[in-house]
Each structure stands twice: as C-alpha cells, then as structure tokens.
Amino acid sequence: MVTCKETHAAIIAMHKNGFTGKDIVDTKIAPKSTIYRFIKNFKERGSILVKKASGRPRKSSKRQDRLLKRIQLRDRSATSAELAQEWQQAGVSASARTVRRRLLEDGLVSRRAAKKPLLSKKNIRDRLIFCRKYSEWTAVDWGKVIFSDEAPFRLFGASGKRLVRRRKGERYHQSCVMPTVKHPNTIHVWGCFSSKGVGSLTILPKNTAMNKEWYQNTLQQQLLPTIQQQFGEEQCIFQHDGAPCHKAKVITKWFGDQNVEILGPWSGNSPDLNPIDNLWSILKRRVDKQKPTNSDKLQEVIKKEWVAISQDLAQKLIESITSRIAEVLKKKGQHCKY
C-alpha cells in the first residue's frame, strides 16, 4: 500500500509528465479533491514539501518564560492569577491559563504542599549529628533497635485522610462524606516495634496525658516484656524521642537500672527518621476502614489491627532507615521523603 508521501510524489510526477488533472483522477490514486489540491500547491510553491502551519504566535519569548519561572521559584505558593499580574508588569499580557502552560513546560506542576514539622537551625544540626553518627550502620544493626512513640486516634476517620471516588453531583452523598464532630473522642496509645515485629501496645485512660509516672509504668509493664519476647538475653537498643517525660531524671535512672541502651541523641522534629510514624499511618488507615462508632469499639479495633501487622512490614520499615539517613545527609539535614 502506498503511503501519503508516495501518493503525493506520484501525483506530482504524473503532472510533470503531462498528465492532466482528469487523467490523474482516472487512475484513482487518490480522491479528486486531494489530487487537485496537490497540483495547485505545487504550482504555487514549486515544491511537494508541505508547508508547516505557523499556528498562533506565542505571547512570550524564551527570555520572558525564564523570567516567569524565576518569579514562581521565588514564591512557590503564588497562584497562576497572581503570576499573570506580575508577569504583566514585566510586559507580558497573558492569562492565568497561559501561565500554567508555560510552567508545565518547565516541569512546574501545582501540587498540595507536603506537611512537615518546622526545622530550626538546631534541629537541622542535630539531625546531621545523628545521621553522621549512624551512617555506617547496616540493616543488621538497625534490626537490634526497638522504636517507640505515642499516637492519637480519633473517631470518624479524623485521624487520617480519606479519598473517595464520586460522580458529578455526589459531593455530599452520604457515602462520599467523612463525618466530623466538634469534640471527637481521642484515644492516646503507646506502642513499640522492631524488625522482629510489633511489640506491646497500651491505651492510656481517657483524658490522661503521658507523664513521667505513666511513662515509667509503661516501660515496666510493656517495654520489658517486649524486649524479653523479641530479644531474650540478646542486647538491644531502645529509641524514643525527646519528649519532656522521656528525659525526666527518674526515667534516665530507670534505663540505667534496667541496663537498657538508648539510641541517640535523637533529633527533635524528625518523624521522617522514625519508622514507627509510618507504622502509625498504616494502622490509622486500617482502623478508619473499620469505621468504629464509639470509644470502646475504637480501642478494640486498634488492638486488633495492631497485632495483625506482619513481621514483613515491620522489617521493611526498619530496613528503610539506612535510606532515610542517606537522604537526610544528602539534603544537608532537611526533610526526606518518608
């Protein structure tokens, strides 16, 4: 089968050899209108090459496009309408839609800002100190660490995000709405885990905050059994953050009396370095799917889903720490993707 280019060339070749338009139409090589259009274009341009359509001219030059990119990078949260106004002051009259297209050409896509704790200079310095100290550790070394933390759980899915798929007009359909209440019941839990799987989990009584007395009791009743169950007589290391109750003198003395080694010094505002934060997120999604309707059911679901977490998942989270540390060092103490 002849291609379009071959057909075009054949029509012009016959025209040059004295064939009339009618003669070429009789060959049925192409539709009549196509044949006459090819001949007409050839007479006007003297070539069989198709002239590239010019299209609508761009409203901005490459230099002006680079200016727009600099404006956006100077203020990442500026809207396309605001950028269009500032661009206009530089002599470019363009719509917000044109602004978005130019930015897309440079790979600048509008996305929801990631939420991360604010890092002070001290936080960044402490993060670098911690990561440099443990940069040579392998997955085997991290397999000897028990990570711990506290986390809040709320009713009606308020503890995590929920996405729904809906059709037009279904935004407020009952199945597409996440219920909220003014003062949701909140349950605070403490848990720990290692590469060997999840450890103990305890739920604090309602309206009770973790203080040094509760924390010491939790360590005695929950941590020590976990250490015995997962490591036996093998030496392990315990991780906790720098919360005030964690740094109390009575807690420091307790760790010394129990001969428990502490990982650290832990840097503040660094949940991205602690894999248990990812474990909490997974647990909250699983709990939200069960849709508990009261505090008792919420506690029941939390305990059920906690023990259902597999060792494979726990091990993968522990093994990710080496990548977290490498990324923080590469970014000079800034947040990593975890």
UniProtKB/TrEMBL annotation:
Domain of life according to the entry: Eukaryota
InterPro entries attached to this UniProt entry: Homeodomain-like_sf, RNaseH_sf, Tc1-like_DDE_dom, Transposase_5, Transposase_Tc1-like
Molecular function per GO: DNA binding
Residue spans crossing the bilayer: none
Pfam families: DDE_3, HTH_Tnp_Tc3_2
Tc1-like transposase DDE domain residues: 145-298
Domain Transposase Tc1-like: 66-134
Gene Ontology terms: biological process: DNA integration; DNA transposition
Protein name: Transposable element
Lineage of source species: Eukaryota, Metazoa, Chordata, Craniata, Vertebrata
